[in-house]
Design a protein that fits this description.
The chain is α/β, with parallel strands linked by helices and 303 residues long. The protein has 11 helices and 9 strands. 45% of the residues are buried. The mean pLDDT is 94. It binds phosphoric acid mono(formamide)ester. Phosphoric acid mono(formamide)ester binds next to helix 2. The site of phosphoric acid mono(formamide)ester (CP) has 10 residues, from helix 2.
Length: 303
């Protein structure tokens, strides 16, 4: 089994199924193991959900956690990712949870780490594997099985690590994935089987669930989106599209209210957004147990 967790495609279907089943078992468990390991949270980009839920997951399992961000660290003096990984290993961390803006950062860190396990918490436009695992768990809770379910991903597909991890994992679980984005925010190549949807209204009509992505302001500033009002007209999920519909809405967060999604939908009966956040802690606990105490996985899965 691969030691690191860099991307969904690297870890494969068997480990993804095992992590989701383990997260479910942990959610029901009356007692948790104490792993007595040390975990560094190395976040070179802002984060609320991912960072805090890794921290909650590790501390609930008795790990020692040190949070590290680029502000105030030697990164500001020019230290590289490679130097940082070597330094954290030399200090003795058993796992390094890494978020970085470079799309090969997790793979690069994994190639440098000699002992520590690298966990990708989102690297550039590449992957965000634990987000996909928590999205899949949330959808499985809702639908039971994803075989033949239609999941639309709406927004900046081209730059989205969430899209890349979600599309890979949801496809493995039997879902039909659709994408909806303005032409300049669509990748030049889509894998076989992915359905292109022309606008948010059609995507909602087509889908059983929609994962709405955050529109980053820099995409507007760089001219990839004509204007905010044009974007909203075609690609925002509006409350009127959901009247009489049972479509579930997910969003990795943070939401730009009234930009990619009408604010009123965030806490509507369609929304699974808070459940995604709660499930994130169980997925990250599953990742820690899978890394540090593989021998306990069967124990959890058999109860
Ligand atoms: N979903 C997600 O990655 O959110 P954060 O940026 O708050 O961690």
């Amino acid at each position: 089994m691969q030691r690191h967790l860099v991307g969904i495609s690297q870890i494969g279907a068997v480990r993804c199924h095992r992590l989701i089943a383990l997260a479910r078992a942990i959610r029901q468990a009356s007692a948790l193991p104490r792993l007595d390991k040390s975990v560094a949270l190395a976040f070179f980009e802002p984060s609320t959900r991912t960072r805090l839920s890794f921290e909650a997951a590790a501390t609930r399992l008795g790990c020692r956690v040190a949070a590290f961000s680029s502000a105030g660290s030697s990164i500001e003096k020019g230290e590289t990712v490679a130097d940082t990984i070597r330094t954290l290993e030399a200090i003795g961390f058993d796992a390094i949870v890494l978020r970085h803006r470079a799309s090969d950062a997790a793979e690069h860190a994994a190639s440098i780490a000699k002992h520590a396990t690298i966990v990708n918490a989102g690297d550039g436009c590449h992957e965000h594997p634990t987000q996909a695992l928590l999205d899949a768990l949330t959808l499985l809770d809702e639908f039971g099985s994803l075989e033949g379910k239609r999941i639309a991903i709406i927004g900046d597909i081209r730059h989205s690590r969430v899209y890349r991890s979600d599309a890979a994992l949801l496809g493995m679980l039997g879902a039909i994935v659709g994408v909806c984005a303005p032409p300049l925010l669509m990748p030049s190549h889509l894998p076989d089987g992915i359905v292109q949807l022309p606008d948010a209204a059609s995507a909602i009509e087509w889908a059983d669930a929609a994962i709405v992505l955050r529109l980053q302001r820099e995409r507007m500033d760089s001219g990839l989106v004509p204007s905010l009002s044009d974007y909203r007209r075609r690609y925002a999920v509006r409350r009127e599209y959901l009247v009489g519909s049972r479509v579930r809405l997910l969003h990795p967060g943070p939401v730009n209210p009234d930009i990619e999604l009408d604010a009123v939908l965030v806490e509507s009966e369609h929304s699974l957004i808070q459940r995604q956040v709660s499930n994130g802690v169980f997925i990250r606990m599953a990742v820690m147990i899978d890394i540090f105490a593989t021998e306990l996985v069967e124990h959890f899965l058999s109860h």
